[in-house]
Amino acid sequence: MKISKRLKAISDLIKENSKVIDVGADHAFLDIYLNLYKNCHCLAIDKSKHSTISACNNAKKYKANIKAITNDGLTNIKLTDEIIVISGMGTKTIKKILNFNIQNDLILSSHTNIEELKEFLKEKNYNIEKELIINDKKTYNIIYAKKGGVS
Ligand SMILES: C[S@@+](CC[C@H](N)C(=O)[O-])C[C@H]1O[C@@H](n2cnc3c(N)ncnc32)[C@H](O)[C@@H]1O
Which of 2, 48, 91, 142 to mutate to test the pocket of ligand 1 (most atoms within 8 A of CB)? Predict the structure, then answer.
């Protein structure tokens, strides 16, 4: 299965067998790839029912074992140690989705206001562990952030 250079760069940040929640998964290509090639347990979330149907159809087509649900961000989702991926949205939406006492590792790729997103992460006591710039027709910024210790 072939995925975009941007989604491949995100998948490269995720270890085998990880638990992943992909918010705004749309077609769920990232989740399908992670399940098939890295044995990850993926929950694909999208607020659009149409996207959830597309995710389920794609999972069936590629014989991937992922879960896809329609939901607004992480509302009512019980989190443990999953990596949260939010990519392909603007900073305003990402901040809204993460506007609670989030503790999980984050992989974020915003197409607007990267500096504002970094400031938000700092306020939430997150450290940026890795930052990638990917050229795939457009330029994309991908951040891996982890919650810092007690300050
Ligand atoms: C451009 S697509 C990105 C798809 C994929 N993550 C990627 O990076 O290629 C953005 C998706 O985010 C979804 N979305 C936007 N706000 C959301 C929210 N609050 N909760 C869940 N999904 C959301 C949209 O419905 C859309 O399918």
Answer: 48
